[in-house]
Amino acid sequence: MEQPQPPFRILPRVNERNRHFWTGGERGELCFLRCRSCGTYIHPPTPICPSDHAKDLAPEAVSGRATIASFTINHQPWMPGPELPYVVAIVEIEEDPTVRLTTNIVGCKPSEVYVGMPVEVVFERHGDAEGDVWIPLFRPRGNGK
Amino acid sequence: MSDVYILGTDMIKFGRFPDKNVADLGAEAALLALDDAGVSIQDIEALWCGNLMEAGAMVGQRILQQIGQTGIPVVNCANACATGATAFRDAWLSIKAGVYDLVLAVGVEQMGKGLLGGPGGRSGIPKEGLLGSGTMPAVFAEAGMEHARKYGTTFAQFAKVSVKNHHHSTMNPKAMYQLETPLEMVMNAEMISYPNTKLMCSVNVDGAAAAVLASEKKAKELGLKRAVRVRASVLTSDPFTERDLVMPDVNTCTRNAAKKAYEMAGVGPEDVNLVELHDCFATAEILHYENLGLCKDGEAGRMIDEGEVALGGRVPVNCSGGLLSKGHPLGATGIANIYEVSTHLRGEAGKRQVEGARIGLTHVIGLGSACAIHVLEKVS
Q: Could you tell me if the ipTM is greater than 0.90?
């Protein structure tokens, strides 16, 4: 699901190592680098596995389901961005709760967000001269309560 | 005290990598050096990381975040253009001190294009702005003109340094440029600060280089076949001289370091088969032939005229292409020099190989000042 008019964001620089993460949304997939030798999901991407130091790594899609581990509600316009107030959250992915990413929670009121809330990925597409990127955001899953 | 050996060393091709960051580049070089040594990050006991532009940003730790957070001690160091060599030297010291047996040194820099130097500190006599003389091209041009005044060194002789180093780098696939620059082209290039034209100024590039250092015990255990022995490691700062307290003295700290390095190594300049020296500007290279004792004072112009410092000459200088053509990523330069000399001592330098090289010398100078010299020797 894409929002018709996404807010201003400072976009990531896409390179060969992180392309799967920033463009997986084109296929609706949340992708992480995974170690083929020990199975560790790696985020952010590194050239060798941080767990067993193997070098055979490949991107792999996960379910996109996650749980909120922590969050804050930002009330100040530090820079141009989403409409205030908005939620900055850290979520744990379902496949491996040690894999966390920082994101925004959308699709509900900030006051409805709680630690432990089940969420699912939704992508916000941004046009860019060097190629579009799909920012992974999260919204309440199921009835969210 | 144990001898110290270089077991593995490598560098990335110097260039401009806007889609990567400093840690990415450093991690690449570190992995290459580990592979070259045939060891893993798990074997490494400590890391020294040289980087200047992000000196406050924990570059060494960020490299380990990419190649393996084994929890080892990390030291981030900055020492102007001697940054990489200082990281290498402190890694060397740790083995000399008997604390570690296997350590890693990484030098890395990401540079913008354009001019280095400028206003400088707020105290003392302001140079740039008031006199327009505090930039790097100006400092090294003035030092070259002083040599010209004393010995009659010509614009063409300074320019020939750049012709030679650009020629050398046509044989170095890891150099920024592989481009011949004939004398007329060098002399007719845009004038930056007389007598240094644009082609006589080092190239600001991104780069990284790394080395794995081992104690004698560890080196024997892992195999000495391609090992390089560190015969001397010297670092100096500039001593008080009466000559000129306004402009940096680019000569004395090199002369002091060279004297100490030859003493420590037990060799003289006549024993050295190749040199990688700090040609940040073409004028600087001429000065350093004499500062390093490669010739007598006043003979540097003759050395470049007669091809003694070119590949095939008596003592080839900057076979890599030097800072003028390989490029000068400040924090990486010191270790890249060590990689170049080691590669010749191992007999692996391909088309630019100095045949039969047994002893090589590396030199860097950072204005401010810091001079580092290493004397390296082939083992087997």
A: no
